[in-house]
């Protein structure tokens, strides 16, 4: 759903610390969803920052900067629509392969965004949480994530799960290692290992499975993201690059989701009547 609307950054104040438009502050009404129509858990692969910037003659890092405003606008739109959990693929375990300059920018900018936006997110009722591995992740980023978590732990409107230094295979390997340690220690028997056991050993076991995954910028792959949690997720791949994505784009995806038939492996015989 390509659009020529101004991007969230275009609409933002010039002061990067100024408050942004929040839930309920939009010029068109939020679509009305009946109970159960909107997904409880939406997962985003925020793709296309670098390509968006390069197409405008800018460095890739400027795309990441613009992505901050797309994220804040999308969070506000998710709250308006009644989404309870929003997971965002911020930095993968494979992203360390990028240039040292880009990695350094992302690490520093992530800490800066958390410092500037945590108070506003708390005002919106957003609990900032972190999912990912500690090893290799910059200590400054870990500190910023944990500080934001503590500052917003009382918020109950939406859980924002920031997947930083995250990989789906890494999460499953870490869960398997934890289960193996429990078996070795006699706390668990091999026969006692079930799907529920593995779920309890994930990074955030209280977060429900993903209902809807949205990837921006046209690519159609999962990129090692929430592999266990997306077993029955609906998937949408939109052409809009992440910096141009906003709450109206999100609402369009949610409306399409509401019209899908989720059977979870079941089926109903619907014979056409003559």
Task: Break the fold down into its secondary structure elements and pairings.
Layout: H1 8-11, E1 41-45, H2 49-55, H3 60-81, E2 85-92, H4 100-123, E3 126-131, H5 139-152, E4 158-166, H6 168-184, H7 195-200, E5 212-215, E6 234-237, H8 247-258
Parallel strand pairs: 1-2, 1-5, 2-4, 3-4, 5-6
Helix pairs in contact: 2-3, 3-4, 3-8, 4-5
Give a short summary of the structure:
The protein has 274 residues and is an alpha/beta fold. The protein has helices at 8-11, 49-55, 60-81, 100-123, 139-152, 168-184, 195-200, 247-258, and strands at 41-45, 85-92, 126-131, 158-166, 212-215, 234-237.
What are the defining features of this structure?
Undecaprenyl pyrophosphate synthetase, 274 residues, single chain
Question: Can you describe this structure?
Answer:
By secondary structure, the protein is of the alpha/beta class. The chain has a domain at 34-166 and 209-258: Decaprenyl diphosphate synthase-like (Undecaprenyl pyrophosphate synthetase, 3-Layer(aba) Sandwich), CATH 3.40.1180.10. It has helices at residues 8-11, 49-55, 60-81, 100-123, 139-152, 168-184, 195-200, 247-258; strands at 41-45, 85-92, 126-131, 158-166, 212-215, 234-237. A six-stranded parallel beta sheet has the order 3-4-2-1-5-6, sandwiched between helices. β3, α5 and β4 form a beta-alpha-beta unit. The model has no long low-confidence stretch (mean pLDDT 94).
């Amino acid at each position: 759903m390509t659009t020529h609307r101004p991007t969230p950054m275009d609409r933002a104040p010039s002061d990067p610390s100024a408050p942004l438009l929040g839930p309920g502050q939009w010029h068109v009404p939020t679509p009305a969803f009946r109970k159960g129509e909107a997904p409880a858990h939406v997962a985003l692969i925020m793709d296309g920052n670098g390509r968006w910037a390069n197409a405008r003659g800018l460095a890739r890092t400027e795309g990441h900067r613009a992505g901050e405003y797309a994220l804040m606008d999308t969070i506000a739109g998710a709250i308006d629509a009644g989404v309870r959990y929003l997971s965002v693929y911020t930095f993968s375990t494979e992203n360390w392969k990028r240039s040292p300059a880009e990695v350094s920018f992302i690490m520093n900018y992530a800490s800066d965004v958390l410092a500037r936006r945590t108070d506003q997110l708390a005002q919106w009722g957003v609990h900032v949480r972190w999912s990912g591995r500690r090893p290799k992740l910059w200590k400054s980023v870990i500190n910023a994530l944990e500080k934001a978590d503590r500052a917003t732990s009382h918020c109950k409107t939406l859980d924002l799960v920031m997947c930083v230094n995250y990989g789906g295979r890494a999460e499953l390997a870490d869960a398997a290692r934890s289960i193996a340690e429990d078996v070795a220690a006699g706390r668990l028997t091999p026969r006692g290992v079930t799907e529920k056991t593995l779920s309890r050993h994930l990074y955030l076991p209280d977060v429900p499975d993903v209902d809807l995954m949205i990837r921006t910028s046209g690519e159609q792959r999962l990129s090692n993201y929430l592999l266990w949690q997306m077993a029955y997720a609906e998937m949408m791949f939109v052409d809009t690059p992440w910096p141009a994505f906003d709450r109206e784009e999100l609402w369009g995806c949610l409306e399409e989701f509401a019209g899908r038939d989720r059977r979870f492996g079941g089926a109903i015989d619907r014979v056409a009547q003559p």
